[in-house]
Design goal:
61% helix, mainly alpha
């Protein structure tokens, strides 16, 4: 399944890289999550990345592509 560059980069992030990516991405968009909420935002993005990977794999299977092994 073909993905755009931003989605590919997001899915390639390690969970450890998510905090820096979140803050950088928020700054690029002029948004600053409140300090106390930031850990929850990062945790939600890690979960979103995992769910997106599963969804993209499922779509690939439906399109006849060989699925990749999920790595939690």
């Amino acid at each position: 399944m073909a993905l755009d560059a931003d989605t590919t980069a997001f899915l390639a992030l390690d969970d450890d890289e998510m905090a820096a990516w979140t803050q950088r991405r928020a700054a690029e968009r002029g948004v600053e999550p409140p300090g106390p909420a930031l850990p929850g935002v990062i945790e939600n993005l890690v979960l979103l990345k995992s769910q997106a990977s599963l969804f993209i794999t499922a779509l690939g299977e439906a399109a006849g592509e060989t699925p990749e092994t999920f790595q939690p």
